[in-house]
Specification:
- Helices cover 28% and strands 30% of the residues.
- The protein has a single domain, classed as 3-Layer(aba) Sandwich (Rossmann fold).
- Strands 3-2-1-4-5-7-6 form a 7-stranded mixed sheet, sandwiched between helices.
- It has 172 residues and is of the alpha/beta class.
- It contains 5 helices and 7 strands; from the N terminus they run H-E-H-E-H-E-E-H-E-H-E-E.
- Strand 4, helix 4 and strand 5 form a beta-alpha-beta unit.
Length: 172
């Protein structure tokens, strides 16, 4: 099975009214599902660097009646690059983006900056065992080490599909 956003999000403990940041939101699969789970009183900040994907995300979200999604043009590899204020998020989603970043520490520190203390990060990325993965893969062990040295602790790891691993990390 390929990675399933709904199943993966169930590990994150989303609830009504939460503020969630979806980094590298892409086509919005995680953003749309998270928007349904946090309800009208919640807020999703879908951060993406590709403007054409942000337009698609806005369009599809509007068609689906999801008015709690804000599309944000931002750079996740730069501290302050998401343009979001500090400690804005109860939860952060980072799916299939770590392996595409060059500045891993800055990426982890930007997540720490926008996530409230005690908030959770859902990290889903390519398994190094996958034949479909990109050239550069950050293994689950390396990802866990990266985030632990940058102020997170592992809450749980899980199978996120036949080509992906999943980690839930808590900001300390």
């Amino acid at each position: 099975m390929f990675s399933d956003p709904a199943a993966n999000l169930s590990k994150l403990g989303l609830a009504d009214g939460m503020k969630v940041v979806d980094l590298g939101a892409g086509s919005g699969f995680y953003s749309f599902e998270a928007a349904r789970r946090v309800g009208a009183s919640g807020r999703i900040y879908a951060v993406e660097i590709q403007k054409d994907l942000l337009e698609r995300l806005r369009s599809v979200g509007a068609k689906e009646g999801l008015r709690n999604i804000e599309a944000v043009w931002g750079n996740v590899e730069k501290i302050g690059g998401t343009k979001l204020r500090e400690a804005i998020a109860d939860r952060v989603i980072a799916s299939n983006i770590l392996s595409h970043t060059a500045k891993h520490d800055d990426f982890a520190l930007e997540i720490k900056r926008i996530l409230k203390p005690g908030g959770k990060l859902l990290l889903v990325d390519w398994s190094d065992a996958s034949t479909m993965s990109p050239k550069t893969v950050v293994s689950s062990v390396k990802a866990e080490t990266l985030f632990e040295k940058n102020g997170f602790k592992l809450d749980q790891s899980f199978d996120a599909g036949s080509h992906h691993y999943g980690l839930v990390l808590v900001r300390t």
